[in-house]
Structure formats: structure tokens, C-alpha cells
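Minutes, structural biology subgroup

Action item carried over from last meeting: produce the C-alpha cell record for Arsenate reductase (Nocardioides faecalis). EB confirmed the sequence was re-checked against the source entry. Recorded below for completeness.
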Amino acid sequence: MEIWLNPSCSKCRTAQAELEAAGAEYVVRRYLEDPPTVAEIADVLERLGLEPWHVARTADATKLGLTLPAKDPAARDEWIELLAREPRLLQRPILTAADGTTVVGRDPESLARVIAAD
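Output recorded by EB:
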């Protein structure tokens, strides 16, 4: 399993604690220090079944003074490029199990689903 996390995020720390409690083997990716590529973000979005604006922290964009593209399929590539350039905008944590199951682990149900899939 891989977890994209920001160690200062309480949801990330909770997810990591749940992985530890479950005895799950996992690799940590500090995505702010090692940002995902455009291809990696596109792959995660495909596995999540979501559009990029669904995993964007839009309030953080406002704080950073960034203008967001339209929430429109025509702007999908622009969104993905923005998330790769500004990884702080990604919802966190993102966990991917060995079988490819991927979740944004912000709630107990999502964490349980990815842990069970690993």
C-alpha cells in the first residue's frame, strides 16, 4: 500500500495510525516533497473515478491566490497540471492498496475499504 500524506495533516496522521493498527505494510510518500506527476495524478483520478476538481482543496487555492479553471471536462487537463504544479491543492491522504483500490482517506469507511483491499 502507498499513502500520499502531509505529516502536519491530522487526517493523514489518523490514516497512518489506522494502517499501523491494522498491521498493514505501506510506503509513505510525502507528496509535498515528492510531488506526483501529471501521469500519476491522472492514474489516481481514474482509479478513484473522480474528476480533478473533486480532489482539489479549492479553499486553499483562494488562500494561495490561484485562479482555478472551470469545473468542466474541457478543462480537465488544466486541472491535472495545476494539481501537479501545486500539490498542496490535493485532498489528503490518498491511499492505494496493492490491488489498485484507491481512496481519499478522510473518513473511517474509506480507510476500512482500502485496508481490507490490501
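Discussion: The radius of gyration is 14 Å.
Next step: EB to file the record with the rest of the batch.
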